Give the backbone structure.
Amino acid sequence: EPYLDTSFIGRNIKYFDTIDSTNKKAKEIAFDENEGTVVISEEQTEGKGRLGRHWVSPKGKGIWMSIILKPKVDPIKVSKITLLGAAAVHKALKNMNIESQIKWPNDILIDGKKICGILTEMNCELNMINYVVMGIGINVNFNQEDIPVDLKDKAMSIKISKDIEINRKELLGNIINEFEKLYIDFRDKKTISKAIKVCRESSALIGKEVRIIKGEEETLGKVLDINEEGELVVEFQDGTVDNIYSGEVSVRGL
Ligand code: ATP
Ligand code: BTN
């Protein structure tokens, strides 16, 4: 792998031509594989998004991958790994001269539309993490016709927006290189401040009026910041300010 410059992430790659879901496969093998093992597939037949949604993953058109991690941290900190992933994808794109925005906590946007989503899952017992699987899906070389009609106004690909075919191996290598640096800081130095800086600087939400959707509940507010814990700082309509933990919320524009 000419594009890889890491000590452990991506040193063991499980490659598939087709698979149901790389996250599912990664969870199946996680106990037996080392930290940093990457599962990647040309296509997913049952790609999963957040909140149990389906993730469209056509053959050869994207990066569908999952990284197995075994951090010795408190399980409540695991959602921060999603922010590390988002920052790594943003930086990797920037290295390739592609500008993007991070939509906290798990999306990357180009031209206001989603090109990447991250799904982090964990297995833990007695407050100890057994493993974490961080899945990254990127719409790289989709053409217009690869985007399902119902996603046309929400989803985008790098190729459609930039009008160029992207070298997926180069992008993959870049992402893994950037992610390893941020992950080592998180795991060993217990800091995510570099990733937070990236998320703030490229935020699609800071300064915007948004709807925060949690199950059936919907509240309106204005996003003020992303704090050092990686939480979204929101000022609600009644003037109260609160920090939102990523959990299972969706944030949408008005
Ligand atoms: P999230 O839960 O990530 O906050 P959301 O509710 O804000 O999501 P969007 O991310 O705006 O929703 O919408 C994207 C929708 O399209 C989601 O339901 C997502 O699962 C779905 N989708 C499926 N496959 C893709 C894909 N390849 N690219 C972009 N979106 C996709
Ligand atoms: C989201 O935005 O809802 C998260 C999407 C995550 C998709 C990736 S593709 C690789 C990995 N395998 C999956 O089944 N899902 C993630």
Observations:
- The pocket of biotin (ligand 2) is lined by residues 21-23, 44, 47-50, 53, 55, 57, 64-66, 106-107, 117-119, 135-137 (CB under 6 Å).
- The CA atoms of residues 144 and 152 lie 8 Å apart.
- The chain is about 25% helix and 30% strand.
